[in-house]
Amino acid sequence: MQQSYAVISVKNTHNYFATLDVSFHNTQSLFGFFTFLIIANQLMSGIMLSFSLIPESMIIPLVRDEEDLEDLYTDDFFWLHERGVDLVFIFVFLHLFRKLYLHVIDNEQEYAWKSGAFTFLILQVVVFFGLVLCCTHLSEITLTIAANALHTFFLFKGKPYWWVFTDRLLNTDTIVRLAYGHYVSAFFLTFLGVVHGLDMHYDWKDESSADNVVQELNWWDEALVNEVSRSCENLFYFWLISTLIYTEPEALSYEIFMWGDVGMSSDVRFYGVAPHWYFRPYMSWLIICPFHRIGIIGLIYFFVIIYFQPNIIGFQELYWYTSLKSFIFKFSKKFIDEAVLIKWQKLLIEFCIVYIFWYTIFLVCIGCSLSFLPYGRFYNRLGGNISMFISFMFIFSYLGLIYFRYSLLLKNFRLNIVN
Fold this sequence. Notes:
- Residues 1-214 form the Cytochrome b/b6 N-terminal region profile domain.
- One of its GO terms (cellular component) is membrane.
- The protein has helices at residues 10-18, 31-50, 59-69, 73-102, 110-134, 139-153, 162-165, 172-205, 219-245, 255-259, 280-288, 292-307, 309-331, 338-345, 353-370, 386-400; strands at 21-23, 216-218.
- It is an all-alpha fold.
- The chain has three domains: 22-205 and 217-243, Cytochrome Bc1 Complex, Chain C (Up-down Bundle), CATH 1.20.810; 246-275, no CATH class; 279-419, no CATH class.
- It has a two-stranded antiparallel ribbon.
- Helix 5 (110-134) crosses helix 6 (139-153) and helix 15 crosses helix 16 (386-400).
- The longest helix is centred in the middle third of the chain and has 34 residues, at 172-205.
- It is globular.
- The model is unreliable at 24-28, 205-214, 256-275, 341-351, 375-379 and 408-419 (pLDDT under 50).
C-alpha cells in the first residue's frame, strides 16, 4: 500500500524541525523574531485585561489603584501589557533602522517592505486605541489630537470623527468603541505580521542576485541560538550603558511622570519618562508646524515615503546609474568599456564613509525628535527650537531622497545578508 504523502504527527513534526536547515546568514540579532514573541505576549496579557475592563473613564484608574493596593494579579497584567508596548516599539524601530542601514530595500524585497510598512502604520492605530483605554491624564489629550487630525483630514466638513471619537472626550461611548477597535486591530496586526514574515522569505528566494551557492545551517543549534545569544549580548551592553548614564532609578520609571513631580527628579530620561514616548515625534512635528494642515500633511508624507521606499530607491538608483554612465562615457569612451563599468557598479562595498556619516546624522536627528517632552523642558525656547526643525527636515530628506545615502564615487550596496 502506498504511503500517504504527508502524515501529520508529533513525531514527524519533531523530526521536520529537528532537521530543518535555513540559508546561511550573518546577523547581529533577530529583532523581527523578538517582535513576534512580544506580540504573542501582548495578545495574552491583553485578553486578561479585557476581562476586567470597565467602560467608565473615572472608574478605570480607581480600580487599577485598588488592584495595586490589594496585590491582585490584574494590575500585574496591566504592567506587563504596558511594558510590552514599549518593547514592541523598541524592537520595531531597531528592526527598521537595521533595514535602512543594510539597505535591504530593493525590487526583490518590495512586497515584504510594503507589508512591513503597512504593519507599522496599523501598529500606531492599535497603540493609540490602547493609550486611550488606559484613561490617564494623557489619554484625553491623545484622543483630542487624533480627533482633530481626522477632522482636518476631512477639511472640517461635518463631524466624521464622531463615529470613532464621539464628542472628542473620554466617556463610556468612546471607551466602548475604542475597545472594539483595539481588539479587532490588534488581531489584524498579528495577521499582517505573519504576512510580512512570509513575504520576506518568499521575496528573498526570488532575488535575481542569487549565486546558486547553497550554504545552510541548522535552524536551532547554529542559527537561532547564535542569534539569540548575540541579541542578549547587545541588550546587556545597552543595559550597562544606560545604568552608568542614568544613575537615579526613579527617573527610569514612567510613574514619576504620571503621578509625581518631574521637577523632583534631576535625571529625567527624555526617551522614556512617559508611556507614550513613541508618539512624541508626531506631537513635536505637529507643534513645530505653523499651520495644523501642514502638520497633518507631514505625518501622511512620512508614512507614504516609508511605504514607497523600494520604489523611491529603485527609481533614483536607475537615475544615478544612467547619469554616471553618461558622464563617464562622454569624456572617456575610448578608455572604459561598458562591461567594466557595470562590473565596477556591482562591487560590494561594505564600508562607505559617506554612507556611515549621513546615516549617523539620521540617527542623531531621530534622537532629537524623540527628545520632545509634553512639559516643554526640552522643546520650548525663545524663538523656537531650530534643531528640532532641522532634524525633521533632514529625516524627510533622508527618506525621500537617496543623495544622502550615495556618492558618485562610493556606492554602498546592501550587504549580502538575509533578514
